[in-house]
């Protein structure tokens, strides 16, 4: 259900919109406003209770038979309204951010840049506070452009990809599904090697080829990304990490189930991971700022790796 | 049954827009059923509070409401002048409209996403030709704002209101109270940062929103310092994240290993069949980045970096004190 503010905002635009379109179709109007037909009917039930003049009597005579919408006493109150500061900010910040996305098609970038200038013009002083908010998207422009092309041509791609957890290069064939940017840019695709949906970070793609073979990803429900890009499965093994205050960043970077405060100002973080041994790099990075408590493998692998690494630094070691 | 708030707001907006002269509070109360009800069943006070809140809400939606202090024989009058509330002519072509549709979808935060769709609705009502079918559904730029502090800071920066909040500095065991005049918000690598004037430290500071503990409280009064024309939050944050380094480090890398490091190399030369020597920018946090690769990396210099990595590895090896 939408809140009263969003609904009021929408109804104000709705009357302007309906004024120009006598007999507008319910389905079309709902689509145009990005709402369900039920929400629209809800708005249409409220509008006849709203009046355009004081001392009553002059209510909006808007009705619908469920298919079409009629406004019988159209008047000129329904002028297009200026943009609010928040509206201008939301639109301009987003448009500038997308325009700055490396690898975006040049045509789209130019269209956005033109649109930004026009919106700034029309918004006037409402546009001012948009300068107080900035968003930077990052992507490897050439890789982004290649994947964008593969997506629009519907073709399979071949990747040489750095697997961070395994600490090595892998080669895979991937049916691209979408490019998601949240800070960094990621390719979501169907990995033919693991026969599963996978997320690939663009800055870890060492090499990419667009193959002649058509992409044919299985029909999948789009994943809900609202909690983060990595969504562990319910039956993935549980991992417990204890960090000192200096390791609290782990809770900001890893999707977790629980983060419990520790007496020293640190955290006990519980998360799930399909492949806990892939947390070896994290154990090494944490150093004295934290440790992976369970399962024991990542910490043990990190310990052995650290011992091997320290060998390089022993007096008289060959590398120095 | 109480009349829904949206209906009340809509009536107030229409009344204020449709009048040529300022209307008094009393006139509005008599015209709008919800107000009459609140006044009859509640009190003068209840009505007054409701009216003030509603006016604020409509202003949030962009309505310019003029207040005429002395319009009606000493009574305050209100009106929303048409010329001040009309969207100027805006001509967007189909390509520009499509690009904006993509952009309006990026906000993952309720207030901003509501505002972005509200903007599109106003533009659409004004005749901008937005297409029904969505192109580019395979491109999904997203701006998250999961941090609870985002919305109150956004409003405070917009309205130039000082705030206080509890802030836990990186690595600090306990949060401490900060008193800040918020200037600008910046999202970088998916995290939000605030730049502002720290009243206690009497200097500009940058805060990471995820380290704000508890509520952001708005303070009475106005900014004491000037807001800089241009606030480069990103430059500050990226420097802290190790970018823009001016010195370099020399490391050896097992060939084919640690791809993320090799992409940072300014120069690479082979040492023997197994190892390459790389020159990489030496910014903040490099020691942790290098330790991650365990035995595939050897730090040659500088000495402080080498010592940092050895110390980290010693801790992980369990060979520390």
TrEMBL record, chain A:
It comes from Kitasatospora paracochleata. Residues 237-303 form the WCX domain. One of its GO terms (cellular component) is proteasome complex. PROSITE patterns: WYL. It holds the Pfam family HTH_PafC. It comes from the Bacteria. Residues 7-120 form the PafC HTH domain. The lineage of its organism: Bacteria, Bacillati, Actinomycetota, Actinomycetes, Kitasatosporales. This is Proteasome accessory factor C. Residues 143-209 form the WYL domain. Keywords: Proteasome. InterPro entries: CBASS_pafABC_assoc_protein, PafC-like, PafC_HTH, WCX_dom, WYL_dom. PANTHER family: PROTEIN PAFC (PTHR34580:SF1), PTHR34580.
From TrEMBL, chain B:
One of its GO terms (molecular function) is DNA binding. This is DNA-binding transcriptional regulator YafY. Residues 149-212 form the WYL domain. It comes from the Bacteria. It comes from Kitasatospora paracochleata. Keywords: DNA-binding. The keyword NAD does not apply. Residues 246-317 form the WCX domain.
């Amino acid at each position: 259900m939408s809140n009263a503010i969003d609904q009021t905002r929408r109804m104000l635009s709705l009357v302007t919109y309906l004024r120009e379109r006598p007999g507008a179709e319910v389905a079309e109007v709902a689509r145009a406003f990005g709402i369900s037909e039920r929400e629209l009917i809800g708005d249409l039930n409220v509008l006849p209770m709203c009046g355009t003049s004081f001392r009553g009597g002059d209510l909006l005579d808007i009705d619908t038979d469920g298919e079409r919408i009629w406004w019988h006493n159209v008047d000129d109150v329904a002028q297009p309204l200026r943009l609010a500061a928040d509206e201008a900010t939301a639109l301009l910040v987003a448009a500038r951010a997308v325009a700055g996305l490396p690898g975006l098609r040049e045509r789209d970038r130019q269209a956005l840049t033109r649109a930004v200038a026009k919106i700034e013009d029309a918004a006037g002083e409402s546009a001012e506070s948009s300068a107080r908010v900035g968003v930077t998207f990052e992507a490897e422009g050439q890789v982004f452009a290649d994947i964008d092309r593969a997506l629009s041509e519907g073709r399979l791609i071949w990747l040489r990809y750095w697997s961070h957890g395994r600490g090595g290069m892998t080669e895979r064939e991937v049916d691209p599904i979408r490019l998601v940017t949240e800070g960094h840019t990621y390719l979501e695709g169907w990995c033919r090697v693991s026969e599963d949906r996978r997320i690939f970070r663009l800055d870890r793609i060492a090499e990419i080829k667009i193959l002649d073979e058509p992409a044919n990803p299985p029909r999948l429900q789009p994943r809900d990304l609202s909690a983060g890009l990595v969504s562990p499965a319910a039956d993935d093994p549980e991992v417990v990490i204890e960090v000192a205050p200096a390791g609290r960043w782990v809770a900001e970077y890893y999707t977790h189930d629980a983060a419990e405060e520790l007496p020293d100002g640190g955290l006990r973080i519980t998360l799930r991971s399909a492949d806990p041994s892939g947390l070896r790099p994290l154990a090494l990075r944490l150093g004295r700022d934290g440790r992976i408590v369970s399962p024991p493998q990542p910490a043990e692998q990190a310990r052995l790796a650290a011992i091997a690494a320290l060998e390089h630094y022993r007096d008289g070691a060959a590398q120095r | 049954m109480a009349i829904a708030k949206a209906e009340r707001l809509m009536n107030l907006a229409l009344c204020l827009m449709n009048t040529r002269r300022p209307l008094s509070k009393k006139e509005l109360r008599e015209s709008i059923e919800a107000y009459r009800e609140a006044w009859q069943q509640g009190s003068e006070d209840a009505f007054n509070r409701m009216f003030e809140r509603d006016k604020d809400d409509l202003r949030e939606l962009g309505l310019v409401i003029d207040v005429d202090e002395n319009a009606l024989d000493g009574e305050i009058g209100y009106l929303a002048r048409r010329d001040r509330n009309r969207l100027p002519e805006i001509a967007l072509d189909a390509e520009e409209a499509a690009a904006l549709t993509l952009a309006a979808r990026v906000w993952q935060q309720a207030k901003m996403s509501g505002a972005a769709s509200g903007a599109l609705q106003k533009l659409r009502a004004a005749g901008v030709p937005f297409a029904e079918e969505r192109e580019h559904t395979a491109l999904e730029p997203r701006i998250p704002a999961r941090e609870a502090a985002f919305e109150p800071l956004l409003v405070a920066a917009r309205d130039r209101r000082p705030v206080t909040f509890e802030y836990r500095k990186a690595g600090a065991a306990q949060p401490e109270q900060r008193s800040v005049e918020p200037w600008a918000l910046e999202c970088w690598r998916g995290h939000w940062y605030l730049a502002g004037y720290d009243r206690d430290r009497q200097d500009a500071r940058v805060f990471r929103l995820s380290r704000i503990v508890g509520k952001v409280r708005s303070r009475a009064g106005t900014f004491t310092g000037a807001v800089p024309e241009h606030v480069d939050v990103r430059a500050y944050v990226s420097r802290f994240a190790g970018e823009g380094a001016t010195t370099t480090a020399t490391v050896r890398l097992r060939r084919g290993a640690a791809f993320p490091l090799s992409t940072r190399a300014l120069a690479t030369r082979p040492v023997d069949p197994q190892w390459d020597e790389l020159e990489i920018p030496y910014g903040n946090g490099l020691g942790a980045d290098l330790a991650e690769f365990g035995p595939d990396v050897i730090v040659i210099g500088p000495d402080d970096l080498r010592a940092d990595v050895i110390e980290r590895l010693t801790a992980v090896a369990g060979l520390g004190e």
